[in-house]
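Dock zinc ion; give full complex structure.
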Amino acid sequence: MSFGSNLTRVGFTDPFRTLGHTLAPMAIRELMLYAERIFMFYGRYSNAIARKVKYFLTEPVFEGDGFSDKEATELSVYLQEHHRIISFAGEMSMDKQCYGNSYATLLVPFKRFLVCTGRTAQGQRHKICGFRRLLSEAFYSEDFEFRFPNFYSVCPICKIKTQNDIDDKRDDRADQLKLKRWSPHEIDILYDPYSTKCHYLWRIPEEYKNDIKGWKPNKGLHLLENIPKNVLKAIALNTQFRFNDDAIFHMKDATYGGIENRGYGIPRVLGNLQTILNVQVIRKQHEAICMDFVVPLRVVSPSQQITAPVGGEDGHGTQSPYSMLPGANIASSIGSMLARWRRDPASIQIAPFPIQMQLLGGNAQQLAPKDLLEYGEAGLMDEVDVPAEMWRGSMQLQAMPIAIRLFESSNKNIPDDHNAFLRWSVKRIQQELNGQVPSRSYFKPVTIVDDEQKRQLLLQLFAGGQVTGRRAYKALDMEWRQEQEGLADEAVEMSEIQADTQRKMDQRGLAGSLQPGATGSAMMGAQGGGAAGGPAGAAGGAAAGAPADPSQAGMAPNPKPVTSYLQQTAGRVPNDPQELQALADSMSTQLVETPEPDRNSELSLLRRFNEFLHELVTKRMEKYRSKIRSEAGNQAISQLQGGGGAAPPPQ
Ligand SMILES: [Zn+2]
């Protein structure tokens, strides 16, 4: 404010002394309430912030020595399905954006037992007892009593009403653990300025305290069953409940180093308050204009210009309606007319005089400060670092890689906070479950722009054998090992199916020979025609040129057709379906001729390269093989029939 006072001295007012700055609450609690109100009632602002946060929400990843892929998957499934960890991180993050602070703890539920102390309510020791039962069992017995903060019930062994101790058994089953978000309004921080260490206190809400203290018979089991012993103690001592230091996670918005914030984050809204207020003034104006001017004011009145003919003493003449009826009667008759019309818009109304209607207002379109609002909000979004495309929800990622990269780097604190929260939750949960803590836990980084290019590059490198399968598969969110095992399983299944088919074909090959040549040659003709009709590309040409009988091939078949294709075309797949068919034809005719180990490796390379093409090729190879087999069968039969005569030509 020093430059402000200098300005005042020379006769100017401080330009920073605006309404916005005067209204800004300076106490952290008030500021949080203010921020909450803005987030609740200014949807466009909070939505823009939410989009920014959600942009960074991705799947969690766990890594570490001795932490297997299987364990990582299990942990990830548990966290996502049971704890909704992704949404939860987003909710924490939104709390931070709103209040500047968000807090979470892990709740470990317990079963509460009551143990008889053998002491009466007056403190006299009756005898040493120790009878133990669930609170929920004792609760509905007739003489159960909760005299804050002690439990009393009639002990079946002592036969008198005794005071009960609490004995809680932790229920640390994985599906019982629960992450809890705390209201930032209720958390107080004890702050040490030197070490910057924070200790956290829960200001127990009065309503909750009163519910516990004002216990009534047969009511409030859910409260008494679940209130931790230490919270009960804190209420009894009328103090705050203090969390264990590592039991609570605090996410806070960083602010400037010079600002005294005593361990709290400062709500981000403070920095945007001036602009938010400006926009809000326009919004309020907008509302007022909409209320007053969208629907025009309709006024109905008897027409004064045109006078009505009336039957007077002389039988005719013209007169104003006012001279005929008192004003009040006119108004009430118009009023009941309008009421009848409201009830039934199709009804016909009768009036003893002409009526006119005037429209007043209705020009909201011209009056509403749309441009001002648009301008104000655009400025506000710049302030909170949300790209206009994002708050309008019309983000086209490919079109704006640089803006996105800038957006990602200027909001780096968001994924950093998400990751810190993930690390804390995993550590806390594994502590309770006696599980291993992975050395690295993080949400998969978002770099959508880079990813798309990188993914394509990786696949090309992989096809060329320049990069490991593990690396390339990871870019596709697939596990290399799983896929390889799947492939091996499929290969076994495939060979079983093939053996089965072979057996069936052998049987059918003999049966089909009763009409020699009919089915076989028709099929071949159709196939040949289809291939020849394709475009005369390199692959199409090869297919068309390949005769049906591979032994008569004019050119030596390539032993590695897939490898050489990938090398020649750098992994391009034809878009044209005919070209694709022709390519499949040429590959299959060559692969049928390829000896066994090479053929398998070529086929698996093809599968990795393009599943669809692989399927086309294997289907063709199957057809080819069965054709050859049935031809061989025909030949054998005709040899038998013709007594060893010459075989009929295959075509
Ligand atoms: Zn007892």
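Observed: The pocket of zinc ion is lined by residues 116, 118, 129, 131, 155, 157-158, 162 (CB under 6 Å).
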